[in-house]
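As a warm-up, study this chain.
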Amino acid sequence: MLVRSGATRRTLPVRNLLTSSSLRNPPRCLIPSSSRPLIEGQRFLNTAPESRPGTKKAYRALVGFERNLATAVSDVRIDGVSLENIPPVYQLRPIDVASTIQIPDEQPLPARGRVNQQGIPGDHLELLSLFDACIKVGRLERSVMVIRRIADMGGLKPLEMLQIYHTYLRARIARMEMGGEQKDTSDDVFKLYELNIHRRLPVRSETIGYMLKLSLLCSKGAKLKSRVDRYMSLLPQNTTIDLGDPPDNTAQFFGDAEPAPAPKSNIPPEVLATTQKGLGLTSLKKTISLFTQIPDGRDIANLSLAERREIQSRLEKDTVDAAVDRWREESQSMSEMGLSVSSPSLNARLYEWHMDLQRRIAQETKLAVEAERREKKTSDDLVRCQLTPYLLQSTPERLAAVTILSLLSLVSAFGVDRGVPLARIVHHLASSAEEDIRVFKITQSIPKEAIRSSKLREQKAKTLLKVARARDYYGTTKGGKGKTATTGPEKELTSDLPLPILEPKWPITIKTKFGALLLGAFLDTATVKVVKEHPETKELVSQLQPAFSHGSQLKRGKKIGVIIPNRALVEIMKQEPRGEVLARHLPMVVEPEPWSKWEKGGFLEYPTSVVRAKAQEKDQQIYIEAAIERGDMEQMMKGLDVLGKTAWRINRNVFNVMLEAWNSGQEVANIPPVNPDIPMPPEPESVDDPVARRVWLKAVKAVENEKGGLHSQRCFMNFQMEIARAFRDQTFYFPHNLDFRGRAYPVPTYLNHMGADHMRGLLWFAEGKKLGAKGLRWLKIHLANVYGFDKASLSEREEFGDKNRDNILDTVRDPLGGSRWWLEAEDPWQCLATCFELAAALELPDPTEFVSHLPVHQDGTCNGLQHYAALGGDTWGAEQVNLIPGERPADVYSAVANIVTESIDKDANEHKLDLAIALQGKIVRKVVKQTVMTNVYGVTRSGAKKQILKQLDALYPTLEADTGFEPIVLASYCTAKVFDALSTMFKGAHDIQTWLGEIGGRVCQSLSQEQLRRIAQEEEDAVEAAALRNSPVGKRAPRRSPAQIAIEGKKKLTLGKDASSLDDLKEKFLSTLVWTTPLRMPVVQPYRSSTSRVVATCLQHLTLMDTTRSDPVNRRKQLQAFPPNFIHSLDATHMMLSALESHDRGLTFAAVHDSFWTHATDVDTMGHVIRDSFIRIHEENVIGRLKREFEARFRDSMYLATVIKTSPAGKTIESWRKGKYASGMTARQELLLEVERLRLLKSEHLSERIKGEEMVTPASILESLGSSDAIIGAAEAVEAEAEENDAEAAKTSKADVDGEAEPAEDEAVEMGEQQAEGSGEELSTKFNTSLFAPRNKYFFS
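Now compare it with the structure written out below.
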């Protein structure tokens, strides 16, 4: 223990509780003052044993930190509320919109550089990932090269550079303590500190602690004393540092200090194995084959929790090893029979592939290591140098197995007889390898820890600091009251909290090169035996051919690389479907780990993120981590825990029927046949008719696509059947995570309750409950619902079960050979499961005593429209979506169809419109259902038109011949009518949807205050550079205001025309739409304009789409997606609230978005919960809170407004721009002029305010002359610009591709729309003027 002396020494607790501040990662977010750390009197937790340091009790808000204060529970306060008064977890908690999490925009990183002669890349993301990989494999000398390249390039904040240096220092300490480095060769690390850290970066106690530790490890005598004195003098006063157990030769610096207690080992004790007949833990290491060794009917759930967790852990960690063992065993057995290499068995061949690929990867690793040492490197050497530390993180054996497993899994999912895109395979292989490396490293660290000697264990690096300084943790004044903590740069440089560990993900370029290396090695080594008949001798001839080949296919007019399996391999895989799946695809045999961090929860070993986000989508991760840090994600994560705790089993009755149907190879319900009977169209007799031949080729391709689709579907179902068979007697669980909108999904890919009808029919609850009278009634109602009789009243649906008792019993007696009544149901497999359940209950003397396991569903009626109706207060719409009670369920689809029919009849009878006459009597419920369902989720008119066209073609195949109109024209006319009907029925909702779109358009065309500052700085730098070129040497121009910069820039700079300058500003639109759900989860839309990047690999050049936070947003996607994503976030909130309250009431709960499941006896209780949760959401002014949040989040931003040129305001603005003052001024300079005007108007000095009022800018003209008619809506302007860009792209495409255009169809569509709506004036950005307006003036007008 080292102590920096001072006038007064304060001892403070260790690991202080952080509830609101985001100080663990200061550069990432700015937390508003209202949610900062609490002042004195707002103290947390108590001194109960389970809450003291050293225990494993975790609190959501702690995020790795624990508080040890002598505080009574009654004193505990959160946001000013006593713990005794905290509402239940399923109650909504107040949200202060002024304290929402706000993340500053990411500054653009320096331009990407080339790979240098040492093989060090010039991209920041690649450098950070390479540095992390070098540290993990102990290549510290190379990591120093990476650090130097990062420092030379610049672009990182001081704390981010400190993170990198701290990681390096920790690695040096660990290597010294493990004896991997001579202590007399460590002077370089002290030089590194003096030259690179001390002179350039802020002083932090953590840094000093590492240097003291290094001094104690590798210095003696006078040098040791000198270094200790030097670093101790740099420590701030009243700082306590725990350096762990010091070496013996440092006792002189501690005097009579008491020795530190021996650290508790983090190694869990060995799990006691239980002896069982025919079942031991050693046999449970075989992944999915594990379950085949368990006696039929044996459930792992009967074991203890510790044993089940051990099994689950082994399942996750031993998947790869188990697969290799299985391949090896079959290969050895075949070898004993003399069949080894020539064996047709795929498992035997897989072992040969594995051995060959293992040798090839080992060879590649050796070449990569040699390339690092080579002074003059070739282009191949430079690529290998970048991949060396990644290859060394695993072993050739594991990499080879992961490659084979991942490739076969992906090929099976795509369909074994179809080519798989090369880019997809490369990325999939690299991602699988990255995940396996992370788990493999965790797994390998435990046994090393266990066998390490006690002396080495005592000397293990313990460099996490226990630093306590009240002003750094709480940011308060000396008395503990008054000012709150700052979150700016000053706070970043003074905080002594340990910096977070740097753990970057692999960037897309590294993944591409790494995946291409694995795939290339596999293609070169994997072979398959092909046996064919000789055409002349008729003898069977065998030959080893490549198992996969690299080819190309045309997709959407572009040639892409594909990997195609050998036909012989295709036949083998059809006969031997693969049963291996990686751990993340399997259910868990123990309850999932509770969620507590971004990647802490769900699986025990496999890292899974709490929110699904692509590697390049960093915004959502940053916001979610900040929300977790301050406890905002508590309810969402507890909701995920509730969903994960639901125990499931396979319904054996249904599984037996399904397996029989599957093995028959016939089409049963949604199971496709093995050999689908789809006749090929006859080839046209005339070879001279190109049109007929083109039609025939199109029909042939359609048949092939249909067959391929059915085969792919059967391949996917094959995985599901294999897993279901393995888990047929087990109790299992589905860990859940979220999408960026908050919707919950099970992580296991194949077997889960969100699958199709056959998956839902196959699963039931592991826990059973007696039906009771109410449960028996709901079971009968459920049968009617899954059969399709769901529009009748509840009493009529109950009678449906009684009337069909004979059909139910016949179904149970002989499902596949009887009347097959269940196959006529809308959901046949769920109907079959209900028949088994109901028949079993009816067999008892008292059916109400039957213990039921079947989930009974309560489905929302077009849930999105329900939320819109509640938001907009649409009574008529609310009736159509069953928000208002009725005798029987309302049918919104039929209601819309009726309105459309009435409108068409009116056009036909009163206006004699030909299109209306053609569609009379043809608009039924099915025609409009999909469009009504998806309208609330943002379907465009183009998409809706395709939906209606598909239904018209299916219902009326001869529509064109009967009416004389092309179906696309009729579909376009009908689409307009459907949209009109919805806007009439849900008027309030339609207005809200329009408002949300307008908000989205303004946000994604906005510039924040920080961006405006950068733009002003860029313009000032350019003006100064121009002034310096024309001024005497050494004379520096005085500092200018934004207005002066704009005027001088107009005179001295030539930045291009206004249009080009405006386009440059549009590239700076970085503001993505962010809002907070009622459960405090921040939602960040991930849509940005990605840039393409060509990466050269050993297989081919691949074009990748690379996206970063500094890329501009995709404005069209942002505004189109906002309304549906906002509704999805409300939908997700409703489901989570229902899950939390159902769990609190003791219900078993599962959900598929807006379909909620529980036991039959609990349906009534769950119904109350669902309704109460919905009401709690909409009791608040949801739209009002969203408005206030956006006002707070974007209050100082400016957005791009579009003004009609012919309006009075537009004419005045154009006249002003042609005047002497503004002539030649660019859009950037106009923007700076408006910034200056707003600054003056907000000034405290009257003279400046008067000056601001006298200034004339486009925005001031718009304020004085503008009206609602003068401004084009932001959403409308963005859409018009996007359509213009699409039209330009289409013209280019038509010019490049001869004969592909079909203008007649476009003209027909336009005709249909005009007849439905009337032609309107075309909106074009070319004929209007753009200007930047202050958001607070126009945002919510």
